[in-house]
Amino acid sequence: MGFMATFEKVAEKALVPIASKLNSQRHIVAIRDAFILSFPITLAGSLIVLLNFAVLAPDGFIAKILFLHKLFPNLADLQSVFSPVLNGSSNILSMFIVFLVARNIAISLKSDELLCGLTALSTFFIIYPSYTQVDGGNFLTTQWVGAQGLFVAIIVGLLVGELFSRLSKSEKLQINMPASVPPAVARSFKVLFPIIIITIVFAIGNAVINKFYADGLHELIYAALQTPLKHLGTNVVSLVILAIVSNLLWVFGIHGPNTIAAIREAMFAEANLENLNYVAAHGSAWGAPYPVTWAINDAFANYGGSGMTLGLLIAIFLVSRRKEYREIGKLSLAPGLFNINEPIIFGLPVVLNPILIIPFILVPAVNIIIGYAAIATGLIPPIAYSVPWTTPGPLIAFLGTGGNWLALIIGFVCLAVSTLIYLPFVLASNKSVENTSDSKLDSEKTA
Amino acid sequence: MKKILLVCAAGMSTSLLVNKMNDAAKEKGVEIDILALPISQCESVASEVDVVLLGPQVRYQKPQVDTIIDGRVPVEIIDMRDYGMMNGKAVLEKALSLIE
């Protein structure tokens, strides 16, 4: 058996079951899908913040190009119109997440998903720090409804999801209404006892924790879980390792980014949101609190999709003499510009290709380090604005830094680096096809 | 009309395949409705589709889809090569044969 055949067998036997377990494990899936579902809302918020500064601030890059501030001197005043947008998106992300995690658990356990999600949201606020009274008005801190409350949201979502789904299946706890009662009314009575039980359990738990830990449950979980994990994620070594793992999974034909999404979100969500809040407050990505986030991967090491295959495509067009490589290259170019590369991964294929595996893993690692170096040395600001991952190549670096031209140039440098690294491997694949056709000729001759 | 559901991570690459499959269906003169959705959203249409095909990159999510579909209709994984070449015709044939 050849090396690749052995390799493939090991992969299918070992990796696919692990990925399968990881991705069918309902708690991981619930967290991952909660972030995926809330993503459009945080992304919309981020884009509005970006546009707000790019167009309306006097030093925004679009305003500069179009001389907008000269035409409309009071334009900057309009910025305040859009600044509340974040209050409805990333600043309340924990509320979305707690609802969605519990809802997702309820879906996989086949219980009432909507009421389960609502119960989780209710519980989230039962254990929330209580109101402070100022001048006769009640005030609730915003500290834990946004990024810093994410872990509490996830944990509450998981616990309530499980408890609700299990309790609501117990026949003893159900109040069954006669058939003449409208279904909507019957539905709410059916889950009444489970909701009461969950509410009591969390209220007591919260009181007990507050007794022993004066700063409260949110502070405890934030300090004990969320902060360590955040520090584990926001450094260049973790970035490179995560990228290698993600791309290595693709080599076996498994969707890498999707598989590591839950852990990635847990590590970077708070840092991303803090960065976004920083740029919303300061109007610039310079000095953003978390210079190293997963955004570096998207901005410098993911052009064309995982493995930065835009460089591979360029290398193919430059030097490949294999007809099928050029054909698939053409087919893959349009989706590749928007970082979708399944055609090239499965068509070329990159999957289990002994030559292309090496640059596919190497290129993103190298470019993450280049991007990191540019940010760490203060050459360019951090990638603080979130930009859709389907944005073409170097534009992610440009927009993510709030319109820094040097970041755009470094993006093109990274693209050139990726092409250069892929080149010798594409040349090698030319040779391997020549060899096989030669050996075919030889065998025909001998035959 | 029969409905085919294609599932991948974000519904992006499968939507490319949908176009190719629609072309193939037109050529063949078959009337068919083809959807592409990420796995997080396929719950909503699970009861209406006649066959579910997974992109090979999310083949490990088959257990999750199996739970959602609950054995009602066939759930299969698209061949890697057909997927990469965006071979709409081959995938359509496979889907039609599964429906029958």
Automatic annotation (TrEMBL), chain A:
Keywords: Cell membrane, Membrane, Sugar transport, Transmembrane, Transmembrane helix, Transport. GO terms for molecular function: protein-N(PI)-phosphohistidine-sugar phosphotransferase activity. GO terms for biological process: N,N'-diacetylchitobiose import; phosphoenolpyruvate-dependent sugar phosphotransferase system. The keyword Cell membrane applies. Its main location: membrane. InterPro entries: PTS_EIIC (IPR003352), PTS_EIIC_3 (IPR004501), PTS_IIC_cello (IPR004796), PTS_Sugar-EIIC/EIIB (IPR051088). It comes from the Bacteria. The chain crosses the membrane at residues 34-57, 81-102, 114-131, 143-164, 191-213, 233-254, 300-320, 355-385, 405-427. It is a multi-pass membrane protein. Residues 11-425 form the PTS EIIC type-3 domain. GO terms for cellular component: plasma membrane. It is found in: Cell membrane. Pfam families: PTS_EIIC. The keyword Membrane applies. The phosphoenolpyruvate-dependent sugar phosphotransferase system (PTS), a major carbohydrate active -transport system, catalyzes the phosphorylation of incoming sugar substrates concomitant with their translocation across the cell membrane. This is Permease IIC component.
Automatic annotation (TrEMBL), chain B:
It comes from the Bacteria. One of its GO terms (biological process) is phosphoenolpyruvate-dependent sugar phosphotransferase system. InterPro entries: PTS_EIIB-like_sf (IPR036095), PTS_EIIB_2/3 (IPR003501), PTS_EIIB_3 (IPR013012), PTS_sugar-specific_EIIB (IPR051819). Keywords: Kinase, Phosphoprotein, Phosphotransferase system, Sugar transport, Transferase, Transport. SUPFAM superfamilies: PTS system IIB component-like. GO terms for molecular function: kinase activity; protein-N(PI)-phosphohistidine-sugar phosphotransferase activity. Residues 1-100 form the PTS EIIB type-3 domain. The modification Phosphocysteine is found at C8. Transmembrane segments: none annotated. This is PTS sugar transporter subunit IIB.
